[in-house]
Each structure stands twice: as structure tokens, then as C-alpha cells.
Here is the input.
Amino acid sequence: MNVKNKPVVDLDANAQAVKIVRANPNLANVRITMNSKSSGGLRTIVNTDSIIQGGTSDVSRKDKFSLMVDEPISMLGTDLGPNPVEYVLAGLAGCNTIVLANLAAAAGIELDSISIDLSFDININGLMGIDPDVRKGAQAINMDFHVESPNATREQLQMLISQLSNESPVYDTIANAVNVSARLI
Here is the structure.
């Protein structure tokens, strides 16, 4: 096992962060921002922007990361980057991995690895306007977890995974209604 690839959480740093937010509840209010610009055809370049916490803007991540969004050729794109659905799944996988590592650490469970196979089922008849009764979004999202631990039973690992629906911010955002606004500036 490559120790550098093990999911590890610094419980002391985590406890310190919780202590700081409890002492200053305004720090619990976080806004993560990104910006995007079309890049020809169906491509979009998305850049990280500021993270605003407790009313203070941290611009250290502004333009630090760029993501190319495209569609595969079969969906009329040029296949130069993951499509939007793949980024949704990537966000879900990343968030669930982070939360699962935190939950395991808090429970005293050591993890050797976490991998997740994800799928997004969609009927594109709704998206293409062929059937107005078909939802344009996902019909289902499925996750299959592969978790290795030297000191946990399968039941303990399943218990951790079952907590994700209550603990993972991205899981919660996808699974529950959230206010989304769109305006022309």
C-alpha cells in the first residue's frame, strides 16, 4: 500500500477549525465562487474565483484552477474535456471521499483506500424536447464504493457510507432542492 495515497485526516486540525467557527459563528457562512466563459462550440472554460468566508474574501484561489467543459462528439461537442454531468459526478465523488475520510478518522477507522464508481442515468428525450413529460436532469445517480481498511469490518464501512446522505454537502445539494437563481447582468 502506497502510504502517500491513503485517505488521512488531521483530527487535531479539524478540531481546531471547529473550535474557531464555534467561537466566531459568522465564519460558518461561506460562498464559493467560480466564473465561466464560452470557448467556441459547446466548450466552456470555468475558473475558480474567490472564497468568501465570514464576509472576508480570499482571492488566493482566483484563476488558480481552470476546467475545460465540453461534450463528447456524440453529443455535438469536440470532446476536449469532461461534460457537465461528469463534473457533477466528480464533485460528488470528491466530496464523498473527503467526508468519508473524516467520518472514518472520527470513528478511529484507518482507511487504506477509497474508490467510487459513479453513474448518472438520464433520458435525453426530455433534454432534446422530444417528450416534455421526461425530466431534463438525472433519473438516478448511483455510487459503488470500494473501501479498504485494516481495522474495520464491512458493516462498519457500510455504516460510514450510509452517513454520507446526512454529512456530504454535495450529496445533500444533489439529493435535496436548493434555490438556484439566474439573472442577466
Notes: Strands lie at 30-38, 44-53, 56-58, 66-69, 113-121, 140-148. Residues 13 and 19 are 10 Å apart (CA to CA). Helices lie at 11-23, 84-106, 124-127, 154-162, 164-167, 169-175. The mean pLDDT is 96.
